[in-house]
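Feature request, filed as a ticket because there's no other form

It would be nice if the structure record came with a short human-readable summary line next to the C-alpha cells. Right now we just get the raw output. Example of a typical job, pasted below so the devs can see what we mean:
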Amino acid sequence: MVEEQPSDTPDLAAGDFSAWVTGMQAALRGEQSSDVPCNGCTACCRSSQFVHIAPDETDTLAHIPAELLFPAPLRPPGHVVLGYDERGHCPMLVDDQCSIYEHRPQTCRTYDCRVFPAAAVEIEDAAKALLAQQTRRWRFSYPFPDDRRRHDAVRAAAAYLREQGDELPADVVPTNDTQLAVLAVEIHDAFVQRDDET
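Raw output as currently delivered:
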C-alpha cells in the first residue's frame, strides 16, 4: 500500500542552487554529509530502498543486527545492503525516526532527494511514490546568474545520460533514477555553458 500525501502540500525551499550543488558534490566525494532540510520527512526511509554499507563502516555495522544485512550484489566481499520490511520501510526506522541516526550508513549521510528535481529526473518506481511526491515539492532559488547556468548544466547532463548512456562504459551506465540524477550532478561541470566573460 502506497502512503499518500495531500496534493495541496506547500513547496519546500531547496536553497540556492549553486551552494546546494557545490555541497552535494562534496558529499558525493565523501568530504561532508548532505545537509538536507528534511524537517521530519522520512520518505526516503519508507520507499523500498536498499542501503549500501561498506566494510569500513564498522560503527554502523555494530549498530545493525546482522540478520538484516545481505551481501551487496556486484560489490566485493564485505560490502552489504540493508533491506526494507514488508511495508517498504527501513527496519531502523522506529516511530518515524532513525533509531541509529548518529551511527547511520554513509549512504544515508550522503542521500539528498533534491538530486531529482536538480536533474529533472522523475522517480518512476511505484514503490517510491511517497518519495516522488516529496521531491516534486522542492524549489531552488537563483540569486546569482551562476545558479541558473549550473542548474541548466545538471539537467543537460541528465538528458545526455538518458539519450547517450549506452555509449558509456558498462560499469558507469546508470541503472536507476537515483544513479542517473547523482551522476548528472557529478559530471555537470562539463555541461556548463560559458561565454567570453566567464
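Something like this underneath would help us a lot:
The chain has two domains: 12-36+112-193, 38-111.
The two ends are 50 Å apart (CA to CA).
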